[in-house]
Design brief:
The complex is a heterodimer of chains A (237) and B (286). Chain A has 10 helices and 10 strands. Chain A is α/β, with parallel strands linked by helices. In chain A, the strands form 2 sheets. Chain A has a 6-stranded mixed β-sheet, with helices on both faces. Chain B is globular. Classes of the chains: A alpha/beta (237), B mainly alpha (286).
């Protein structure tokens, strides 16, 4: 099975504060890897390191074998990393359509390429709002837009940081179905999620971070059946 | 009657020139958060370069195009090789751009001398336009038309093209724009060149009205700053409305109450800033 995204020995620092300590894990092509952990465990920092916001101090990040950890964010995105950030961060003054087309990029070898038509077919609610200013969308719609925006770049690896955060249960379920569908289409996904149940339902592999270190790495099934592990690293739920 | 018409057209022509200057300043600040204090110098340098080009190419419009391109390249070099290294360092950018503006001023003094150099109005536009017994200075009308056409073109570029949407995405959330693959660095250079080119071309087009003289930079920069503060940084509409507002206030202020010209100029800006810190058309930025 080929490696889609790999971190090996990644150290990251905010100023002098060390937030990631030799983090290593591998996302296999076509799989979903859930990155779990308590608040402040370093999940979002991992995402920032991968997309290039916070270049690692040490260690290497590879995308399908190619090192990307020394590149700027726009170059990493163009290499095929799609990013659905925490808090969605859609471009609020742009229309829905503009949000989608600014990140539109084709990629050689994409089986069924994403484009505006396909994204609005995936999220019909966006279709009715294409000319609307994105800042006026509801939270759920903004989340769909953020996912659609990332898909428009035809990513080889999709990073999703807390896609269910702050959404109503019905919308969370819809986001879950969308991720499941993307997985079915063979999209490699790195998922950070506070909603453990959602994450475990979708994930093949699980990596648990604790205070910036990898505390567990294994299959989703192992985590589901190991109550001690869950209590110890993820809090009671 | 004739007096008011002339003053109104003077104010509209000045507003048009201010727009050419302020639009670029506003775009650069909105996207890159660089307060480019060389912007007035780019205008003056444009005027002087235009004077020289006119010796070889006796056509003001062609000179404005060529001169605008020269200043655009000069601006691009400043951005790539100097300002790029100072990203995020606001004080450094202010000092460097101020320093460059002093250097440009001395350079102009050495090359073109200290006397004002008049620029001839194109022959075809020297005769006033007579409508119903009232004479309108034709060249000022043309300057106004150029500003309006430029504003429409900039509007279409910013609001109707994918490149424009990318620039606005960068203004909304620069980091996120990069994360979706928008080549922000190239856009920066392009926007800087565009802004510099507009300022340079403005200097040449303004030549027949203002001439080229030492101190033109220091006369224009504060006006551009006021326009942008009043209209709201990063807002094209704000730059447009602000330019004509300040053009009118400055022209009528100096004509009617010359002693209070600067009070009349700065007071509205202070009032607007006090009550609307983001200017008339400014918006929340991330």
């Amino acid at each position: 099975m080929s490696e889609a995204l790999a971190l090996s020995g990644v150290d990251a620092l905010y100023g002098e504060s060390h937030v990631l300590h030799e983090v290593s894990f591998t996302l296999s092509a076509g799989k979903v890897l859930a990155l779990l952990g308590r608040n402040g465990a370093g999940k979002t920092t991992c995402m920032s390191a991968i997309i290039g916001f916070l270049p690692p101090r040490r260690g290497e990040i590879r995308l399908f074998g190619e090192p990307v950890s020394r590149l700027v964010p726009e170059a990493i995105a163009r290499k095929g990393v799609g990013f659905v950030p925490q808090g969605r961060r859609i471009f609020p003054t742009l229309t829905v359509r503009e949000n989608l087309i600014v990140s539109g990029r084709s990629r050689a070898g994409a089986p069924v390429p994403w484009n505006l038509e396909r994204v609005v077919a995936l999220f019909p609610r966006l279709k009715e709002r294409l000319q609307q200013v994105a800042g006026s969308l509801s939270g759920g719609e903004q989340q769909m837009l953020a996912i659609g925006r990332a898909l428009m770049g035809n990513p080889r690896v999709l990073l999703m940081d807390e896609p269910s955060e702050g959404l109503a249960p019905l919308i969370v379920a819809e986001v879950g179905r969308t991720i499941a569908r993307l997985k079915q289409e063979g999209q490699s996904i790195l998922l950070v999620e506070q909603n453990i149940k959602l994450a475990l339902d979708l994930a093949d592999e699980v990596v648990i971070l604790n205070t910036g270190r990898v505390a567990f790495s294994g299959s989703a099934g192992e985590v589901r059946s190991d109550q001690v592990l869950i209590t110890q690293h993820l809090g009671v739920f | 009657m004739q007096y008011w018409i002339i003053q109104t057209l003077n104010s509209l022509a000045l507003g048009g020139l201010l727009f050419l200057l302020a639009a670029g300043f506003s775009l650069i600040f909105g996207l890159m958060r660089i307060a480019n204090l060389t912007h007035g110098s780019l205008y003056m340098l444009g005027a002087y370069v235009g004077v020289t080009i006119l010796k070889f190419v006796p056509n003001l419009w062609l000179a404005a195009l060529i001169g605008g391109a020269v200043i655009a390249i000069f601006g691009g070099l400043i951005e790539r090789f100097i300002l790029r290294a100072l990203a995020g360092n606001a004080l450094g950018q202010v000092l460097v751009t101020l320093g460059i503006s002093f250097i440009v001023a001395d350079f102009c003094l050495i090359v073109w001398g200290g006397d004002p150099i008049p620029v001839q109005t194109p022959l075809a536009l020297q005769q006033p336009l007579r409508v119903g017994g009232v004479a309108f200075p034709t060249y000022r009308l043309v300057v106004l038309a150029i500003a309006v056409v430029t504003a429409v073109a900039l509007y279409l570029l910013m609001e109707r093209t994918r490149i424009g949407a990318m620039i606005r995405a960068g203004v909304d959330d620069m980091q996120m724009a990069r994360a979706v693959g928008i080549p922000v660095s190239k856009l920066f250079t392009a926007v800087f060149c565009l802004g510099a080119g507009l300022a340079g071309a403005g200097g040449i087009i303004g030549g027949p009205i203002m001439s080229a003289y030492p101190g033109l930079d220091a006369d224009m920069l504060p006006l551009a700053l006021i326009v942008v503060m009043l209209g709201g940084v990063g807002s094209l509409l704000g730059a447009f409305v602000g330019s004509f507002l300040i053009g009118a206030i400055y022209t009528f202020g100096t004509a009617l109450l010359p002693d209070l010209a600067y009070v009349i100029l700065f007071l509205p800006m202070i009032v607007v800033i006090a009550f609307r810190p983001r200017g008339l058309f400014g918006r929340q930025t991330v």
